[in-house]
Amino acid sequence: MSSKVDYLTCDTCSKKFRPGEVELTCPDCGPDLGTLTVHYDYESVANVLTRDVLDSRQDQSHWRYLEILPVDSRPDALHPRVGWTPLYDLPKLASEVGVGRLWIKDDGLNPSASFKDRASSVGVAHAMEQGRKVITAASTGNAASSLSLFAACAGIRAVIFVPETAPEAKVAQLLMFGADVLAVRGTYDQAFDLCLDTALSQKWYCRNTAVNPYLGEGKKTAALEICEQLRWDVPEAVFVSVGDGCIIGGLWKGFCDAEKLGWIDRKPRIYGVQASGSAPLVHAFDRGDRTVTPEPAETVADSICVGKPRDHIKALRAVRESGGAMIAVDDEQILDAMRTLARKGGVFAEPAGATGFAGLVQAASASMLGKDERVVCLVTGNGLKDVATAISAVDTGPVGIGADLNSVDNWLREQGSKGA
Ligand SMILES: [Zn+2]
After folding, report:
1. Which domain holds residue 345?
2. How many domains does the chain have?
3. How confident is the model at residue 269 (pLDDT cuts 50, 70, 90)?
4. How far is the CA of 35 from the centre of ligand 1 (A)?
5. 36 CA distance to ligand 1 centroid (A)?
6. By three-state DSSP, how is residue 319 classified?
7. For the segment 149-168, what is each residue's pLDDT rounded down to a tens digit?
8. Nearest one of 348, 352, 374, 366 to 273, comparing CA atoms
């Protein structure tokens, strides 16, 4: 167990645990309410990991924050580069959207093409330190692809539970990385419960979001990067899509950690965006509840098609403590956001990856943001993850023509264009 982790606290009853004292969640509150938050000896870390130290650090990956991660070292076997993803400054798109500045952070550029690599790499490193032989996860696709990649690097067996509706490209990744894939005849929520039960009965390392407190620690690195990439001048608002709530909870933890370490002196408002067909966290936020009531879920954005968000307490805490909000967008807005991000932002996002941007567009047009505010929008997954939806999102298909210049000329004439 990493010596850096000072203690963990239950998100519901605040009970303190020593590292390693409990496997996953608070025994009194259970897996739904008893998710844990990781705490470090911030004073000690602040002495060794300063802004100046980071400035001189060569490592262009999320391991540059090793001192504030729950593992002792970066295992050599985990060589794929995770994190330090680009933060694109897009002034034209900012003025179209109606905000002062807009940066898109493209986490689709991680090794398995999603944000989940931040959590999986830390989770697998943690499992390696514990000498675990089998690691398991339930996933709508991305977390599993990512886990399979890092488990393969580590030489650990990965057993993955996915809903049988998971997109083919994501399943292809799992199989290519050599995971055992169990396609559950049921929803993601059922796959999650089955996986958790199996992990507990088989004593496998569980990479499931929310119930494993160390995963959010990997996810928080995106927030640390945003701070550092903007030279510690944090934006006013951050937008991100929300399924289980682990990414948004992790982001908020990152900004809180950065403040505790003295790197930043204020934190952004965090906006969580759900698909309107899968919006239990939006409804809980609107009701003023601190926990969710499960609902049926249906949306084109498979990665956030979650009826029972597992990290609900941290997600709701993130938006409330930060002064942000949970908002819902419909599938048409998501498809529109995919087109805009691709055509005006140079970023090909999967539906869930574009959902944060769809929420930003809606929030800006509803005057939830100041016209001069600086905003970061996270893209959480690459568009090649779900080609079928990408095809359905574009308004035109390819035009079939003969393999000769006449055919091109004819097409140009039909376009009403004289060509070059
Ligand atoms: Zn508790």
Report:
1. 87-112+215-393
2. 1
3. very high
4. 8
5. 8
6. helix
7. 999 999 999 999 998 888 88
8. 352
